[in-house]
Amino acid sequence: MCGIAGLYHLSTPKPVDPARIERMCDAMAHRGPDGHGIWTAPGVGLGHRRLSIIDVAGSPQPMASSDGRVMLVFNGEIYNYRELREELRAGGAMFHTDGDSEVIIAAWQRWGPQCVSRLHGMFAFAIYDLEARSLFLARDRLGVKPLFYAALSDGSLIFASELKGLIAHPLLRREVDPLAIEDYLAWGYVPDHRSILTGVHKLPAGSSLLLRHDRALPAPNQWWDVSFAERRKGRAADLEAELLHLLRQAVSSRMVADVPLGAFLSGGVDSSSVVALMAEASGAPVKTCSIGFDVAGLDETSYADQVARRFATDHRARTVSPDDFDHADDLAAMFDEPFADASALPTWRVCQLARETVTVALSGDGADEALAGYRRHAFQHGEDRLRAILPQSLRGPVFGGLGAIYPKADWAPRPLRAKSTLLALAGSSEQGYARAIGVTPPELRQTLYSPDFLRERGEYRAEQPFEAMMRSAPARSGLDRAQYADLRFWLPGDILTKVDRTSMAVSLEAREPLLDHRLIEFAATLPEGLRLKRGQGKWLMKKAMRRYLPDEILYRQKQGFVTPIADWFRGPLAGAARAISSSTSLARTGWFDTRRLGDIAEAHISGRSDHSRLLWQLLMLDKSLIRLAIV
Fold it and tell me: Least CB-packed of 172, 283, 317, 402 within 10 Å?
């Protein structure tokens, strides 16, 4: 795992100052503390920070091809590099290292831009071809590894693994995109189709960019997508066996490392499955770690302990407390852009714990998205059945009217919190799922903004690109479209961003075996009833894992990796909640109705409403703006 950065002149090739590339890389030193390198030529500069995982003593970057015609900087891991190396060697390629970086170079020289389809793994890389004078940027299929880029006023394009790498360049403008504020309030993060800064872009997951001198900046080329349009046929037992084979293959391929390796263990289905398959493939005890909370209703460490004992892992645990809020500034520094998934705090803590003994840790991310494991998938499936029975002309006025007058009963038992369901049923399948996955609904956002900001936002709503993605998805059903949007929109924007930044902040490589693209593609073809049956998500996976895990782990209610921020904002953090409306940089932007923000804080502190997620969003936005020196 590493950090990469570079500069490419789209117009006339000009000399590149190596010190400028070095500053961009130094801003991401946490991503690669084991080594660094800079290479420049007329019109181009490449930089690299290295975290040594495979071929520790070799494979320095930037790396040149044996004939000197190609230069590479690479962040990630290619899990099938050994098989590719043998295939390429049979075709005449020569190799001088034992790592995967040189395999990417040889694959580029053999297959050109199409080489990405041969790579199995997580990656973001840049290849400069000295003969063609072209720069090729690519990102892995699911977006596990990030890549930011921006065009500058001097005709150059800069790129880096993190936004802070771009910010280190003096010509980058630090102007907030107002639509990014709308997106962030809706989702709790800035999705991949936008950046917090105007003019900065994120290369989409499964996409590439081929740049040439004296050519305009092209649009990214999407080279991979997942399709839910086909259905796998066969007996359930045969599909279960195939799924288990893919799970084993995904886990074992990610256990290749020349440094200590372990796993995150929450005690949920996904991480427990990964640990079970690691234990099966390993001759030594698996190193595992977990994070608990000092709020009993949110603590899952007893389940993690149960799995650790079952597989005799070398297990360690730690507790997160309200005192950890003191590290909110550290979180803002990790993410650069505002990021309000409160589980980032315990994720960072578990990464810190893992890094004390290992350099690589396997996570359980991805199975919920691929196999319909979230509660919202069951709700979406049921709501779509009702939408199919009742026409929009009836649902809109009836459910919309009821939803408008139904109280937002945050204090009530879950079955009585019907407002969101009523509003979801009033709209289309896409509108309903946007509500299910969003953080701050459009009606509430409308009341937060100042008149000036509302004029600047115009007709744009954050849900529009999400709903468009669902409508155009290669899919057969509403559940298919929901899962597609999870994989293409929510997963790279939220979950993978969280894991990448928190793990890289402590120089830990996190690997996601359940996001192996072969496993994802297989899961997308499963009949709906093998993904979601009688309200039970991940049905086939749980059935396959019963030979390893007890029903108490497989079938208990999904809890999620959450943080007790609601309690915190009513206790030790009440002062921080009140300050949002008056004494913060955010209050000085002019974007919000500060009186309304104050009312929201008091309603939460008094217990009348639960606005903890919104308060956390506003707090993290404020801290990000300070970090970016915007206000």
Answer: 283
